[in-house]
Amino acid sequence: MSRIQCEKENEVREASRSGLWTPPLREHASRCAPCAEATIVAEFLLHEAEIANSDARLPTSGLIWWKTQLAAKNAALTRATRPITLVTALSFLAVALGLLWLIAESVEITASNGGAKYPAYLQHLLNLYANSAALMMTTGMLACLLLGSLYLVWRE
Amino acid sequence: MPDELQTRIEKLEVLAHHDFQTAAPTIGMNEDAFGLFYDRTARRLWAYLQRVSGDRDLTDDLLQESYCRMLSAKLPAMDEAESKRYLFRIATNLLRDRWRRSQMVNRFTTPAEVRDVDLESRADTRRAFEQLKPRERQLLWLAYVEGSSHQDIAGITGLRVGSIRLLLFRARRKLAAALRLHHAQ
Which one of A35, A126, A128, B44 is most buried, counting C-beta atoms within 10 A? Predict the structure, then answer.
């Protein structure tokens, strides 16, 4: 059964990399099976590395530095604007719900409104402004949104 | 001057294709130190990625991503050898992720310029290396080209130190046999 590793294999590897062979080590590498294998493999791979090194077309370090800085700035910007995005989304949701409620109420009033002198939707808006409960609800909703926004900004 | 122009063009391309969701919270090295580190390591990393993956485009992508990730990480003070190990570990992990995602095993492309006198012969010997498993290529490259110790290889590849010796032996034996067969022909 063949040996897995020779105790001189690291020396052989280093000699192959540096090209600094001592005569006894060269002699050993020619007689020892693991070291002979290591030499063949090292010579092949080092030559491959040489070719690959000369083939490499690299971007400049400045470009990579700049790219990383840009990514960091964008990440910071995303974090900073997250509360604003959230509040905007909440506002849109609130407006959409408010509109749905208005439409639903208008349909209901139109159905029960026989000979009124104003169109149904206008009548409904007038009623809405006259109704203190609806105003309270709207004010409360806006106050909640404001407090939520302030909290999110404060957290950041 | 052409280099500056190329950098500007590359910057514009980055702006055009930049993924604005990628996070890079902290930069732990100043630009000059990074420039020096990059000059010493970039060619070696490129060669490692190219010869292990066999894909030049992937290599270009992963090279940049590896350095960006390294710069973005919150790192303790490291000497150059540790930084290089860390860089190679990032690159190896990225490579592994790409393999997992695309199930890519061998996608070797011919290098743009092969400087050997005997091109066919060189291509044949290269094929012997390409036929190894990606992990075997990684181990051999790290051990024989980068001169990494078993412990370093374990740190870079995520394998156990104890299993490196045997895996390396098998890979070396396989490659040596293929190279000998080629030389015999």
Answer: A35
In a mutational test of the A interface, the residue from B50, B172, B175 whose CB has the highest number of chain A CBs within 10 Å is B172
Q: Which one-letter amino acid corresponds to residue A102? A: L
Residue with tokens 């091109």: B119
| CA dist., res. A15 & res. A25, Å (int) | 9
**Mapping DSSP to helix (H, G, I), strand (E, B) and coil, where does residue B135 land?**
helix
d(CA A99, CA A109): 15
Q: Is B39 on the interface with A (CB under 8 A)?
A: yes
Ranked by mean pLDDT, which of A118-132, B38-52, B96-110 comes out on top?
A: B38-52
Cβ contact A40–B179 (<8 Å): yes
CA–CA distance, B65 with B90 (Å, rounded to integer): 9
Q: Residue B27 is nearest to which of A40, A49, A72, comparing CB atoms?
A: A72
Considering Cα of A120, then A122, then A123, then A124, what sign does the dihedral take?
positive
| pLDDT tens digit sequence for B70-85 | 988 877 777 888 889 9
More confident residue, B18 or B51: B51
In chain B, which residues have their Cβ closer than 8 Å to the Cβ of A14?
147
Alpha helices in B103-160 (DSSP H): 119-130, 134-140, 150-157
Q: What is the pLDDT of residues A1-53, one digit of tens each?
A: 456 678 888 888 888 888 888 899 989 988 888 899 899 999 999 999 999 98
Kindly report the pTM of this predicted structure. 0.68
CB–CB of A65 and B35 under 8 A?
A: yes
> Of residues A154 and B142, which shows the higher confidence score?
B142
